[in-house]
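Thought: the user wants the 3D structure for the chain below. I'll pass the sequence to the structure tool as-is, report back what it returns, then summarize two notable features.
Action: structure_tool
Action Input:
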Amino acid sequence: MKVALTIAGSDSSGGAGIQADLKTFHAHGVFGMSAVTAVTVQNTQKVYAVQEVKPKIVADQILCLFDDVQIHAVKIGMVSSSALIKSIADALKKVNPPSVVLDPVMISTSGYNLLEPDAQDALITGLFPLSEVVTPNIYEAEVLIGKRINTLDEMKKAARDILKLGAKKAVVTGGHLGGDYAVDILYDGVEYKELKCRRIKTRNTHGTGCTFSSAIAANIARGKGFFEAVTNAKVYITGAIEHSLSIGKGSGPTHHFFDLYARAGLSYGE
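Observation:
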């Protein structure tokens, strides 16, 4: 069985973070393992607090797993400080990891800063060069390149600029751009590809970035190339949003097992 590792924070509401990552891995037939970087106090409405795990503990989680198990892909999510980023980078350099998918989580939907201000440079210099794919949304891409993004052409330029920061491939997600369609831009350093789908009208989008990047990692773990992996992940996240769950008073989670429920003949309320 293929194995994927998520290095990310815990979401107490279960819709994002390592909880979403592990659900996504298993929905793709990939066994999921985790190195927890932080514990968050959050629900569907907002993030209230974050407690970072000691950097050495995070590094040791990574090293002990690679010492024991063959891991076929790594996904990195919330990493909040320079010290934590350095410890993760140092650990990954020691194990010669497989393809790494980096989701540069910076700010929660409710506006909570998940990346310390002085850690952005560490994220770029420490983790971008180790990453096969970086998956920022438009807001994150704007922070990374220091430019506003309002059009598809500007998304393409942003993808190109992100590769200049050290990543090998980029996916700039366009869910926040507006319009009737959500368009993602894929760039492998040579070719651009647009992934387009009609925007789904729902407020239940908690954890979409985590789920999408984890789906990419799961597809890579199963041997898919970049464009196929991202295309498959786009289909998956679209279905998960279409069947999203109205749980909580805020932005509910996507349905990570919508396809399995359908095959089992279960309704989404069961």
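Final Answer: Structure generated. The chain has one domain: 3-264. The chain is about 40% helix and 20% strand.
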